[in-house]
Write a structure and sequence with these properties.
This protein has helices at 35-42, 59-63, 78-89, 104-109, 124-129, 137-145, 148-154, and strands spanning 2-6, 10-14, 16-20, 26-27, 30-31, 47-52, 68-72, 94-98, 112-116, 132-134. It is 34% helix and 28% strand. It is globular and about 40 Å long.
């Protein structure tokens, strides 16, 4: 667990890191370079979950050697399915990272929502739903490998 009491923001007790796949940790179906190593490091302290519609059909194959739970979403209400998933594990214990419009509900509901930018760009709906905007996934994950960065970003 990652625990912080952030002045003006409140306590964070993060047990679960829930991430979108395509556009967030992957590009065109392939895990972005260096992200697997960071995921392994973070998995010592928190449970890692990947939610995806798996557009390219490669998520499970690409993440097979990583300590993550993969949840494939099907149907038309991807945003609601992602929200339901974080509620099932406890949204108050979740940090969520995403970039797409279908990530907006989980980013808003989670204890901590982080929107990332990257080659697929960022939905403004998702950006308005997040607590933090990160320039890329490595910077977003760096908030958890160096949690004091969360405090310097969120306190007031």
């Amino acid at each position: 667990m990652i625990s912080l009491n952030i002045p003006g923001f409140g306590p964070l007790n993060i047990e679960h890191l829930v991430m979108d796949y395509n556009g967030t940790i992957a590009l065109d179906g392939n895990l972005m370079p260096g992200i697997g190593k960071i995921i392994k490091e973070l998995s010592v302290d928190i449970e890692i979950h990947v939610l995806t519609a798996d557009t390219f059909g490669q998520c499970e194959e690409n993440l097979i050697d990583l300590p993550v739970s993969i949840h494939i979403i099907s149907g038309t209400s991807e945003d609601k399915a992602k929200l339901d998933y974080i509620n099932s594990v406890g949204a108050e214990k979740c940090a969520c990272i995403g970039n797409g419009r279908n990530d907006a509900l989980m980013l808003k509901e989670a204890a901590l929502g982080i929107v990332v930018s990257g080659p697929e760009c960022t939905s403004m709906v998702a950006a308005r739903s997040a607590d933090i905007a990160a320039s890329d996934i490595a910077h977003a994950l760096g908030l958890f490998t160096h949690p004091i960065r969360l405090m310097t970003t969120l306190r007031y």
